[in-house]
Amino acid sequence: MTPSSPAPVVASEIERAIRNVPDFPQPGIQFKDITPVLADARLFAGSIDLLTRGFQPGDVDMVVGIDARGLIFAAGAALKLNAGFVPVRKKGKLPYRTHEQNYALEYGTNTIAIHVDAIQPGARVLLIDDLLATGGTAAASAALVKKLGGQILAITFLIELSFLDGRQKLKDYPVHSVVVY
Ligand code: AMP
């Protein structure tokens, strides 16, 4: 590090920037708003550094991001790692042929999708989302990557709500989170 380069961002700085919004989008949910992290150039870049910690350019073929906020971080991570970027999106958003995966919500189900040709068999994949809650979204996304033959090196989150124990749905993969509540 040269004397003029800024100090690396640490997780506590990101934690301080995350805005808690009570009762959004429904009563009882405390929404973790990451837009203040994105709005700060140093914290945004630092969040990408922390989400990709341990990986160098050449280690990863594809970074897969999960709709919606995961796409922002995954795109930055792909650029940093000189990897391709792949979106996992909510059903109906991707234009070409897709594979779909259902997963359970507290009430009802949700469906996410990936393009059928998004990942080559054997590709080394880093999967990224903004937040791990119950783990259903990430587990379904991982299932889509595996269906295409991708090899998941790790799943990383900016935020983990550890009291919801989402990790137990992701036991097959290394899971890293930057800020844990
Ligand atoms: P889950 O499938 O329960 O792990 O939920 C994770 C997905 O829902 C992520 O894509 C998050 O963006 C979103 N999410 C769940 N809970 C919250 C929360 N409290 N604040 C912000 N986003 C959330």
Q: What would CATH call the architecture of the domain at 55-180?
A: 3-Layer(aba) Sandwich
Each distinct ligand: adenosine monophosphate
Broad shape: globular
Please state the oligomeric state of the protein chains shown: single chain
Radius of gyration: 16 Å
CATH topology of the domain at 55-180: Rossmann fold
Query: What are the secondary-structure elements, in order, as H or E?
Result: HEEHHEHEEEEHEE
Query: What characterizes the major β-sheet?
Result: 7 strands, mixed
Percent strand equals 25-35%
Which stretches are poorly predicted, pLDDT < 50 over at least 5 residues? none
Total count of strands? 9
Please state how the strands of the largest beta sheet are arranged side by side: 5-6-4-3-7-8-9
Structural class: alpha/beta
Question: In whole angstroms, how far apart are the ends?
Answer: 31 Å
* Helix percent band: 25-40%
> What is the CATH C-level name of the domain at 55-180?
Alpha Beta
Number of helices: 5
Description:
With 181 residues, this protein is an alpha/beta fold. The protein has a domain at 55-180: 3-Layer(aba) Sandwich (Rossmann fold). The protein is built from five helices and nine strands; from the N terminus they run H-E-E-H-H-E-H-E-E-E-E-H-E-E. The protein has helices at residues 11-17, 35-39, 41-51, 69-81, 136-147; strands at residues 19-22, 30-33, 62-66, 84-90, 98-104, 109-115, 124-132, 151-160, 175-180. The longest helix has 13 residues, at 69-81. The radius of gyration is 16 Å and the shape is globular. The model has no long low-confidence stretch (mean pLDDT 96). The site of adenosine monophosphate has 18 residues, from strand 2, helix 4, strand 7 and helix 5.
